[in-house]
Amino acid sequence: MKAFVVDKYKKKGALRLASLPEPELQDNDVLVRVQATAVNLLDSKLRDGEFKLILPYRPPFVLGHDVAGTVVRAGPRVRRLKVGDEVYARPRDHRVGTFAEFIAIDEADLALKPNNLSMAEAASIPLVGLTAWQALVEVGKVKPGQKVFIQAGSGGVGTFAIQLAKHLGAMVATTTSAGNAELAKSLGADVIVDYKSQDFEKVLSGYDLVLNSQDPKTLEKSLAVLKPGGRLISISGPPDPAFARELGLNLFLKLVLRLLSRGVRKKAKRLGIGYSFLFMRAEGRQLNEITRLIEQGAIRPVVDKVFPFEKTGDALAYVETGRAKGKVVITVAD
């Protein structure tokens, strides 16, 4: 099969198109023919080696964290899925690699593709959908009437999270440029802050939850918009001790992560605010819930551009510009 390979950790390193053997199936796996995948900044960070302490992929490896496609083979312990099923997923860490023609995925990570989406649309959903679900439903436990601030409302996570927060009954604020304000409004944002001309920490106050996806300076400013008892959830760091325990990291790495997040945790505690770092995980059951919302029309995909498979490198470069509205998708096969 053909796949795009990272030969070594390298800043802005090129991907190489390679011929690889078809993946071997474990007992609980299905082999999926990849029909579409999507690009995330996580792919760039992995290629650049930013997460090699906690996700030590050994080059050469295949990038790609979103997939939509068709089951072509099933392992002996697979019970829920069968050959011919149209599925989508964010494969679990250490088993990613959707920039390829085929991928073996644990059945537990997969869900049936929403029947009202194309393969390209479905491929745009898993990583950002699960990130938003785990932040707002699982960790944040958002309730009707609460005030939620979602940063970068025109980005991949933002476009999904706004819709999910509105479905959960929250009042939603977001940051975006004036040019993307109509998009954010159409997704359900109640308050739109133009980050180029306004300081969100001066405009917003009394919020129950902030979903932070930006830099450390923005993270610190986010504390100011939360009320006592509120929660700050960051998907861009710094990692906290709970994350280190969850990953079962060694004592040294636990200490490193504790020190990295010490400042924001201390400030949050002083203000009576909870701080959590979220590194989303693969979860087929949650994807099934997301499928239901999509089929009901509560959430729609937002796709900026679609690239052919041979232009995967260009798709990654476009995502790195930070200009994408929603997701950037790659079609691999019909």
From TrEMBL:
This is Alcohol dehydrogenase zinc-binding domain protein. Pfam families: ADH_N (PF08240), ADH_zinc_N_2 (PF13602). SMART domains: PKS_ER. Residues 13-330 form the Enoyl reductase (ER) domain. The lineage of its organism: Bacteria, Pseudomonadati, Pseudomonadota, Alphaproteobacteria, Hyphomicrobiales. Signal peptide: none annotated.
